[in-house]
Design a protein that fits this description.
- It contains two helices and no strands.
- The protein has 78 residues and is mainly α.
- It has one domain.
- α1 runs antiparallel to α2.
- It is elongated.
Length: 78
């Protein structure tokens, strides 16, 4: 019987963290642009929603970065 198990550089959970972190970081510029667009149109209350969303994404990205650090530390000691 042959072993058909594939071994990847990162496991599924770590991949989920990495891709989500990447998406959050990429969205920072887009959300800032949208917020600025609304500010330029004289709609600061809508702009604030986008600034808040961007800030929440940054907070979540920081938390996920810490999680990624734990995965890296775990792999370094394995």
């Amino acid at each position: 019987m042959t072993d058909t198990t594939r071994h990847f550089t990162v496991d599924d959970l770590e991949y989920n963290v990495v891709t989500t972190l990447s998406t959050l970081l990429q969205s920072e510029d887009v959300l800032a642009k949208y917020a600025t667009d609304f500010e330029e149109e004289g709609l600061p209350e809508i702009a604030q929603i986008f600034w808040t969303l961007r800030n929440n994404n940054r907070k979540t990205a920081t938390e996920l970065r810490a999680v990624l650090g734990r995965f890296i530390d775990r792999d370094a000691t394995s």
